[in-house]
Amino acid sequence: MSNTKPDITQGRKRTNILKNIEQKTIEALCKIMPSWMTSDMLTAIGFIGSILISVGLYFAKENKIYLIISIIAFAIQWFGDSLDGRLAYWRNTPRKWYGWALDITVDWISIGIIGFGFYYYFESYKFIAFIFIFAYGWSMINALLRYKITNAYAIDTNLMGPTELRIIICIFIVLEYFISNTLIAFGLGGSLILIIFNFSDLMKILQEGNKKDATEKAEKALSK
Predict the structure, then answer these.
(1) How many helices (H) and strands (E) does the chain have?
(2) pTM of the prediction?
(3) What is the pLDDT of residue 156?
(4) Nearest-CA neighbor of 49 among 79, 77, 82, 80?
């Protein structure tokens, strides 16, 4: 039997601050995962976590104590979303394109569900929930464009990844319990910052697109 350590980072380039800690945590969880647990089950768990985030926000409109549901649900979402594909690579049973397509689809639906939760929770400035969905959706589109042009799939925006974003949101949810409208301030400020990062990323992607166009034109010219 080979003693080679499975590479669970295949197919992804990570640049987030917590990548080393997260990587070790995911590896430890993969080691103890029961054999009956499948990647599809983990995807479903992550999706249920997204629903519970929205449920927590829904009930928190009447009583803020329910915000704890959303915090716990973010942990559930991270567990399912982070381990589904990585477990497959750990077991050397990856379904690269199936998993990629399913992951993108579930992520997009999940963002919509979470956005609805924030929309319902906010007493005013409900449009911020739509700005959040727009900004996060744009970051997903950038990831797909980068993958198409450079063949490198990255889910992080510079030093910020989904895990860091979840932690920051949870911190603001805790603050919301003590100081009302904290989530509104975070939603607006965070979305605007994400839009700026998205625009910067798009400029880099377009530059890569120009380089690829020039390379393909040169190759065609040489082949004639």
Answers:
(1) 7, 0
(2) 0.89
(3) 78
(4) 77
